[in-house]
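Field guide to reading this record: the first block holds the primary sequence, the second block holds the structure written as discrete tokens, and the final block holds curator observations. Each block starts with its own label. This record concerns Class I SAM-dependent methyltransferase, catalogued under organism Kocuria oceani.

BLOCK 1 — SEQUENCE
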Amino acid sequence: MGFYDDRVLPHVIDVVMNAKQIREIRQRVCSGLQGEVVEIGFGTGHNLPFLPPEVTRLQAVEPSQRSIALAQERIAASEVPVEIVGLDGQHLPLEDNSADAVLCTWSLCTIPDPEAAVREMARVLAPGGQLHFAEHGRAPEHGVRRWQDRLNGMQQRIGGGCHLNRDIPSIIEAAGMKITRLNTHYAEGIPKPYAFIYEGTATAS
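BLOCK 2 — STRUCTURE
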């Protein structure tokens, strides 16, 4: 990991991913979480203020040590105990059926093998548990998709491996999970190639 990805990008993401409309999405996606929750792509802890009181513990997976350092103030202020349990969403150091829910926001775009990560989420979910997700990805309009494909290489370089054009529902379903709720929309005020949002829940099928 170079200087930019290690030292600069976490600060940029910390600011960009705390915009008002992003916070509104986080609040919706965190609604209904309870019990033991595993978060894939914890980042700088932006989801912590939106965890319901029914959440008893958050086990966080985050590869960036700089992001974890930036999250310390939010962790200290959180009423939910937070434990950093791993670095790699593709290989979770957790027992089978050990989580009541999994939370994943704006992370499947960056994980090198997102299907492997979703399979791990399904593995650790207890029966009846749900994945709560919010991701950006492949847009429905052909013209927007063309721009996503054109810009994808540059986005990966400046965005720490972030892909603009991943089909999030297809990834989740290909990994063996069943989507139980899905809402899609463009985030306002963001160029369309970067702005198509998937919000939903899924269960292990």
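BLOCK 3 — OBSERVATIONS
The radius of gyration is 16 Å.
DSSP finds eight helices and seven strands in the chain.
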